[in-house]
């Protein structure tokens, strides 16, 4: 999760990340982690005194990983349409292979009124980071003649992000990764078809 974490703390955080993706904030406890990792709840408290601190740490690491991945994608894939395609294919693979079947920040956002403020701040930060990246990619596409946007890049980015997160929900509801693929590829086709 992060180089500053001890190996045991990193194992706890990795377990928490998986549980968040599957169940959300309120769907797991330290007892679930203790059983999965094979340690006592007291040992978890030694590394993470509260569940809020554990989840905040997990989300902060996830946010940093995502930001680094988006920056790398922007640097390596100059074509904005190919960049959006690569991002959606990343999620398609994660969902199909169940390596990360759901964006943990999207999952936590559904619980926003019931999660601690420090966790909510990290979740909002991730949404801001992703929205800015999407807006920049869409603006690049507009300048390059790849996309014809109906609204500002920021508005279009918010809609695209919401649709992708909705596609994740639909794939989970139907327990069918192909649902995500169909929706995400349809979004990309509509963006390209506008010009």
UniProtKB/TrEMBL annotation:
A single MF term (Gene Ontology): DNA binding
InterPro entries: Homeodomain-like_sf, HTH_TetR, Tet_transcr_reg_TetR-rel_C_sf, TetR_C
DNA-binding region: 29-48
Domain annotation HTH tetR-type: ranges: 6-66
Name of a matching Pfam family: TetR_N
Keywords for this protein: DNA-binding, Transcription, Transcription regulation
Coiled coil: none
Protein name: TetR/AcrR family transcriptional regulator
